[in-house]
Design goal:
Helix content: 25-40%
Number of helices: 10
Shape: elongated
Number of strands: 10
Structural class: alpha/beta
């Protein structure tokens, strides 16, 4: 247990509950208080990892003064607090000010990095953002969106988080900075979540795509040649409009061995031909084991028998049985006379 209280700023990843790091899941399972914003972090990420008795604080419904008071109470009561941030807590979200505040209050502070939204979007479309002639990527947060035109002049791959309602202004700055209307753009909204939207488009059609999907909240835009959609191979015998069906991935030796261990652990039969979709996820099992080790109270050791110190009996001094009777005087025999 911490002696001063602890605040962990945890990157919750792009949204999916299983895209959080193992350390992040452990910190949530340990927390007495979890601060999060439902609009930024999926509810399943909190529901799957937080303790049943943990206090959940909606960050969007409290003021900064109330958050500061919560940190003070954590320091006084030695509580463990987790502040969840969407994506990677180490690269944005106003962590710096909160971090320095907690240090001044005497709390233990740590930052747990997470999977960034940019990384999740790039993985979703299967593109390396720095693998083209534009070998650098510019990250633009909502706070620095006014510098879009300046960064657009660099003609590198751009990752910008912009309010969907301001897409028209964003397009204007891209064109003024030097991007052409046919420059590839990827629209990524709530990547990895159930209601995600990932669309390939161009700078010229970007505004209409955003309106079509009714994206008015902050949305990630990936701009540049690096995000151009790959061309699928078409079978020679198929028509030009029919794509070759994708081949199912074969389970690897490692995945089969992991599935075997997991099935043995839960006493379930191992399917003869397990498909990748039916295999258990060893990483998720590791998270569950961590959660159980934290949530389940440690078994109390059997009470040790109390040592009863018995004083050793002192040896009794040898007793002398003294008689109280007076010793009898020897009886003298009378002398015989000579007569």
């Amino acid at each position: 247990m911490t002696t001063t209280g602890r605040v962990s700023f945890v990157g919750a990843g792009p949204g999916a509950a299983d895209l959080i790091t193992l350390r992040g899941a452990r910190r949530i399972a340990e927390a007495d208080v979890v601060i999060w914003a439902p609009s930024a972090v999926d509810v399943e990420c909190v529901r799957e990892h937080a303790r049943a008795d943990a206090d959940l604080v909606d960050f969007s419904r409290v003021t900064q003064e109330e958050i500061t008071d919560l940190y003070r109470r954590a320091a006084a009561s030695r509580q463990v607090v987790v502040r969840l941030h969407a994506g990677d807590a180490a690269t944005g979200g106003g962590v710096q000010d909160q971090h320095d505040l907690c240090v001044r209050l005497g709390l233990e502070v740590e930052v747990v990095p997470g999977v960034s939204v940019v990384a999740a979007a790039a993985a979703k479309i299967g593109r390396e953002l720095t693998a083209t002639e534009a070998s650098s990527t510019v990250l633009i947060s909502p706070d620095s969106s006014e510098r879009v035109q300046e960064f657009a002049a660099l003609q590198t791959t751009m990752a910008a988080t912009v309010s969907g309602a301001r897409t028209g202004q964003f397009v204007e700055k891209l064109l003024e900075g030097g991007y052409t209307e046919d420059t590839p753009v990827v629209v990524a909204y709530k990547v990895s979540q159930a209601d995600e939207v990932v669309v390939h488009t161009t700078v010229g059609a970007l505004e209409s795509v955003v309106k079509q999907h009714k994206l008015y909240r902050p949305t990630l835009f990936l701009v540049g040649a690096a995000v151009k959609a790959p061309t699928r191979r078409v079978s020679a015998t198929a028509t030009a409009s029919v794509e070759e069906p994708l081949r199912a991935a074969r389970p690897t030796r490692w995945s089969r061995r992991a599935a075997s261990r997991i099935a043995t652990r839960v006493d379930e039969p191992i399917p003869a031909t397990a498909t990748p979709a039916a295999e258990s996820n060893p990483a998720w099992t590791a998270v569950e084991e961590i959660q159980q080790s934290v949530r389940k109270p440690a078994e109390e050791p059997a009470p040790k028998p109390k040592l009863t110190v018995v004083a050793a009996e002192k040896p009794k001094p040898p007793t002398v049985n003294a008689s109280t009777a007076r010793p009898k005087k020897p009886v003298r025999k009378p002398k015989r006379s000579a007569n």
